[in-house]
Amino acid sequence: MAGTASPGLVWVLIEHRGGWPPNGFDGLELDAGTKALLSSAAWTAGARILLVRRPGPRPRHGPKRWAVLRYESSGAYQQLWGTWEREEDLAGIVTALASPGDPGLPPVVLICAHGRHDPCCAVRGRPVGRALSERWPELVWECSHVGGDRFAANVVVAPDGVYYGGLDAGSSVATIEAHLAGRIHAEYLRGYTDLSPLQQAAVAALLERFGPAGRHDYQVTETIREGGSWRIHITGKPPHPANIDVELQVRRSAPYQLTCLAPSTGSVMVYEPTSITSDERLQRNSESSD
Questions:
Q1: For tag attachment on the chain, is the N or C end more exposed, with fewer CB atoms within 10 Å?
Q2: Class of residue 35 by CB neighbours under 10 A (exposed 0-12, middle 13-18, buried 19+)
C-alpha cells in the first residue's frame, strides 16, 4: 500500500445525508450555478470536494455542515466550518477557501463508504465507520470516494493528510488511537498527501524500520534518481535518526483485480525499498570518501 495516498492539501467536506451518486459531488442535483461556483473555487484552491455523513442513523431534516480543511507543513492545520440548509448557503465555502482557518481544532477522521462508486468501500468501510464513531463520535464521518478502492477500508485523517488502508473494525480503532497520540505506524499506512508516491514509500519504510513517529518527525529533503533506482534523503527529529537515505526500486505489479467493479485486471506501480542507511553508516561513508 505504501506510496498510494492521493495528493492534496485542502479538503472541502459537504454533508449530504442521502444517497451519493457514483461520481460524488459532480453528480449531485444542485443548482448549476452553485455547483459551478464551488467547483471553480475548489479547483483554484487545489481542493478536493468530498461528500460526508455521520455513520449509522442520520436525521432527515435540519441544518447540515460543511468544512474547509487545510494542511500546513508547519503543523498548524486550519479548519473552517459552517452549516447549510439551502443550496445558496454553500457559497460560504467559496469565502472559506480564500480565508485563513482556525488552528488547533481536532482532526477529522474520514472513512470511505461510497458503495455506489465501489461496493467494497461500503461493505468494508461501514463497519469501520461504526467502530470509530463509537469511540470518537464528533470526529468521524463517512465520505465519498478517496481513491484506492482495492485497499478498503480506507481512512483519511484530515487536515493531517494521512491515508490508511486495509483496515477492519479492530485495527482501525488501534490505528487511529495511535495516530491521535502522535504515533503513526507503518502497518496500514498508505502515505502522506503532501509527498510524492516515492517519498511516501520511503517514509513508510522508515516507520517500519525505526518504529512509529509523529506526522512531522521526518522531513523529506532530497529525491534523486540514480540509474534504475531512486534515493530519498530524509531528516529526522530526536529520538529518530537525524539523517537517513532510503533507496527504492520502482516496478509494475502483475495484473490483478484492482476493485470490486473493475471490468478487467490491471497493474499498478510498486515502490520497493532496497536499502535504508542511517546516521552512523552515512558518517562512515563520508569519512572514507574524504
A1: C
A2: middle
